[in-house]
Design a protein that fits this description.
heterodimer, A: mainly alpha, two-stranded antiparallel sheet, 2 strands, about 0% strand, globular, B: mainly alpha, ABC transporter involved in vitamin B12 uptake, BtuC
Chain lengths: ~325, ~375
């Protein structure tokens, strides 16, 4: 009976809000990173360095937000840092046609070492943390009962940092751009038939370079969101494989951004559910189960309904002008 | 049908640099440039970065040397070689076939957790030697089993193995944690870890490496297992038709099909072998060094080894010196980092930089038409680049 009473708190407004808000916090960094990866993959560049770009973004974002005292400085710095790291990818893989997987692993390892080293030497003693960031309530929706409402300590699920809304908007914009605009068509052509794009008079190098830079900036933003809005500080394990998870989501989405949104939200919900169930004493399950649950489900779906992966034809293949 | 004809064309139209080879610097120069230059550049850049954050790089590198070699440290380095070499050998088997098994960490941890959980329960029922062999085989089988879903999905549906091996890796890492905290939990402690092996139940040391007067703890025979595995894989890859088949598959999938090779079977077999060696790697680390697994333990050796495998150009014997060097740097790096008050992740930085400079060297060398390549199928991929 007491179990039941305790559990009833879980379905209160605060409980449900915590569940969904937790999911959103996990979802947003993944969303940014896999959105970038998706554009890059559609353009024919497999970006395995995503983890490193997120780390660099997380560190740069943290430093800028800490010294600048403004979260937007941090997000901007994170995007710049991510894009800066992806310049290596542009140079090595797009320009010089070197193996994308090798360069990607190199980027991840280098960034992992570099951020840990620099953070340790700069902030070894202080290990500072950042304050909470401003949240914006959507007028009307934020007052809805059940999922939030006025006067709740946690606020409503419609009261989130502004970047979260930007991320949602960006998903729709990227989906629309890839599908309906000329730039999107160019990106898709760079991945599916770079020769045809070249013949049409559009530079494959330029198109792919922009796609890779976009991926880097998005990964950096995702990392910065993690350090600034979620953790409120930096640790060298802050990304914890999220970059690789984002790569998996981008590949599974088969080029459709809205699937990424659905995928990362489900992933977030799965993790958040574990915390929520534990916090309200419904079940006491190891969070490890929920960390691996999404992947088990995806694998089962793949095995049961096994189908070919629809990846761009020229993915991970360098483009060399004039070669067949 | 078009597939087959273009595949034939692929082979015919390899760039001249790939077939003619050695135009520029001669063999000795080539070896020097390709194998040493990336390392030198990485160490140099590492020194600049160290100096930039106010650490004396010369002292740091000295510390790496003394922490990795002097006194009994060389034995730690030698023992670290065993798992790294076994993973490298496992990677060579798949990379040769052009398959990207990036799920090494999951395969490693799940194998480690299983034998650390099962081992202490078997301990007193069987003779120790049989016990150890059994645990090695279990680790190999678990590692191999962990590659089955990616292998089947690639062989049957051509599903990209990077996605599936990464997913299996996440599952493996979490499942290992669940097993260690649950089924295999040591009942005598609240720390989430497995029961420890008896000291006498661990791998025996190589005769002559143990010395009380010099305070040498001894090197376990896992190192010999790793060296033997390297020789076997070298032979398999360079002297048997199986190795040649994998090489053809790695160079061009369409050529392999055109030649009538059983591509799905090759994919599955190379995946299983790779997982098995990674499982053996876990066995050497658990049965030789650790003796137990804690839930938060994840050495993440997998990605470290990737650059070495390419530096050695997928040659299982040539990779040995690189692995020895990495072991030394990783053991000595901990000591140097401690002395300088830094994180030991500097090792990762060195490894990543080596890989980057290796790619850069590849590009420079290609420009001067030195011939040869670090990477499997690079030539074929370049030839297909424009399709």
């Amino acid at each position: 009976m007491s179990q039941l009473l305790l559990a009833s708190g879980a379905f209160s407004t605060a409980g449900l809000t915590a569940l969904v808000s937790g999911a959103i916090l996990v979802c947003v960094p993944l969303l940014f990173a896999s959105l970038g990866e998706l554009v890059s993959e559609r353009g024919g560049v497999l970006n395995i360095g995503l983890e490193g770009m997120m780390l660099m973004g997380a560190y740069a974002g943290f430093v800028a937000a800490y010294h600048g005292g403004n979260e937007w400085l941090g997000f901007g710095a994170g995007m710049l840092a991510g894009a800066g790291v992806s310049l290596v990818m542009v140079l090595f893989c797009v320009r010089w046609g070197l193996d994308q997987i090798v360069v990607g692993i190199a980027i991840t390892l280098t960034c992992e070492g570099a951020t840990a080293l620099i953070f340790e030497s700069e902030f070894a003693q202080s290990r500072p943390s950042l304050g909470a960031i401003d949240k914006v309530a959507i007028p009307g929706l934020a007052d809805l009962p059940v999922v939030g409402g006025k006067g709740e300590s946690n606020g409503s699920i419609f009261t989130q940092p502004l970047v979260v809304y930007l991320g949602l908007g960006l998903t729709v914009v990227v989906a629309w751009m890839l599908r309906r605009t000329h730039a999107g068509l160019n990106v898709r052509a760079a991945g599916d038939a770079p020769g045809a794009l070249d013949a049409a008079g559009v530079s494959v190098f330029a198109t792919r370079s922009w796609a890779v830079l976009f991926a880097g900036a998005m990964a950096g933003l995702g990392g910065a969101f993690l350090s600034i809005a979620v953790v409120g500080g930096f640790q060298d394990t802050i990304i914890g494989g999220r970059g690789f998870i984002a790569i998996v989501f981008a590949m599974l989405a088969r080029g459709r951004p809205l699937w990424i949104l659905a995928g990362s939200f489900m992933f977030g919900l799965s993790l958040s559910f574990a915390d929520w169930a534990q916090a309200f004493g419904i079940i006491n399950i190891n969070t490890d189960y929920f960390l691996m649950l999404p992947f088990v489900v995806i694998l089962l779906v793949l095995v049961l309904f096994g189908r070919r992966a629809y990846l761009p034809a020229a993915l991970a293949l360098p483009y060399e002008r004039g070669s067949r | 049908m078009t597939d087959a004809t273009t595949a034939a064309a692929d082979v015919r139209e390899l760039p001249p640099s790939e077939t003619a080879g050695h135009a520029g610097l001669g063999t000795a120069g080539e070896v020097l440039v390709r194998s040493i230059l990336p390392l030198v550049l990485a160490v140099g850049t590492g020194a600049i970065i160290l100096a930039a954050i106010g650490v004396d790089p010369i002292q740091y590198y000295k510390d790496i040397w003394s922490g990795g070699v002097e006194f009994a440290a060389w034995q730690d380095s030698a023992m670290r070689t065993a798992p790294l070499l076994l993973i490298a050998v496992g990677l060579i088997v798949v990379f040769k076939a052009g398959i990207w098994n990036l799920g090494m960490d999951g395969q490693f941890l799940i194998a480690a957790a299983v034998i650390a959980g099962v081992g202490p329960r078997l301990e007193h029922h069987l003779p120790n030697a049989i016990n150890l062999i059994l645990l090695f085989l279990i680790a190999g089988a678990v590692g191999a089993a962990w590659t089955i879903p990616p292998a089947l999905l690639k062989a049957r549906y051509e599903l990209n193995e990077i996605i599936t091996t990464l997913m299996m890796s996440f599952i493996g890492i979490n499942l290992a944690g669940i097993l260690v905290k649950g089924t295999f939990q040591d009942p005598t402690t609240t720390t989430p870890q497995t029961r420890s092996f008896d000291f006498s139940a661990l791998l025996p040391t190589i005769p002559g490496t143990e010395s009380v007067s010099r305070r040498w703890p001894g090197i376990h025979i896992g190192l010999l297992v790793a060296l033997a595995a390297a020789v076997v894989v070298w032979y398999l890859m360079s002297r048997t038709s199986f190795g040649l088949r994998l090489g053809v598959l790695g160079a061009s999938l369409r050529s392999a099909r055109h030649m009538g090779l059983d591509v799905p079977r090759l994919i599955v077999v190379s995946f299983l072998l790779s997982g098995m060696f990674v499982g053996f790697a876990a066995a050497t680390e658990i049965l030789g060094v650790k003796g137990y697994v804690r839930a938060d333990w994840n050495p993440a050796f997998g990605l470290w080894v990737v650059p070495l495998v390419f530096l050695a150009r997928l040659n299982a014997l040539a990779v040995i010196p690189y692995v020895v060097l990495l072991s030394l740097v990783s053991i000595g790096g901990d000591f140097a980092a401690q002395n300088a008050g830094l994180t030991s992740k500097f090792t990762l930085l060195l490894v990543g930089l080596t890989l980057l400079f290796m790619a850069l060297t590849e590009w420079i060398v290609r420009r001067v038409e030195l011939g040869g390549s670090y990477l499997p199928g690079a030539a074929a991929r370049r030839a297909r680049g424009g399709e």
